[in-house]
Please model this.
Amino acid sequence: NAGVTQTPKFQVLKTGQSMTLQCAQDMNHNSMYWYRQDPGMGLRLIYYSASEGTTDKGEVPNGYNVSRLNKREFSLRLESAAPSQTSVYFCASSPLAGDYNEQFFGPGTRLTVL
Amino acid sequence: EDQVTQSPEALRLQEGESSSLNCSYTVSGLRGLFWYRQDPGKGPEFLFTLYSAGEEKEKERLKATLTKKESFLHITAPKPEDSATYLCASPPRSAGGTSYGKLTFGQGTILTVHP
Model:
């Protein structure tokens, strides 16, 4: 049982390049989330998917798109990377999209945009 | 605006020196308070969910408590392996009655326990 896995672990992009961050969970969870973590800013929600087939914006969605490919996988795409998107990105999953359901996090992707 | 504020930003303790971390929130109609532990270079690891004021939960040397305005994470006789960043989080207020699992995180307290 791997839990939440993310690929790649590290990535360096040039301004304007695009890339997709991959996330998969094997816990049969319904809900999945993408966060970014920046020094002094804490974890901020980018997008979430309450259930398969649905996605919605979080606190900081600009410059990102997501795809809930199936129940297991939730990808985050940067269409035209900017230096402001340099951050650590975490994917998380939860059994249900409820107020009291804990989220389980992946190991993160460390992205640098030059 | 919903806010979750943690203090102190950093805390250095000697092994065995007990202390507490604070998490205060301005979210009205609190619907759960979560504590996570994050080790350097890793994702947050779930510790506790507190559902209502007055509730307490324990795990090894950690004890989390919740009042109407704040939560405390008490660390009793800490060991060097307790060194980590501790995060608290709460669902933001929602007009629809549920936050759909969205969380507002505090900035964390960096705990260092020296042997």
Notes: Chain B touches chain A at residues 31-32, 34, 36, 41-46, 49, 51, 87, 89, 91, 98-103, 105-108 (CB under 8 Å). The radius of gyration of chain B is 14 Å. Chain B has no helices and eleven strands. The longest strand of chain B covers residues 19-25.
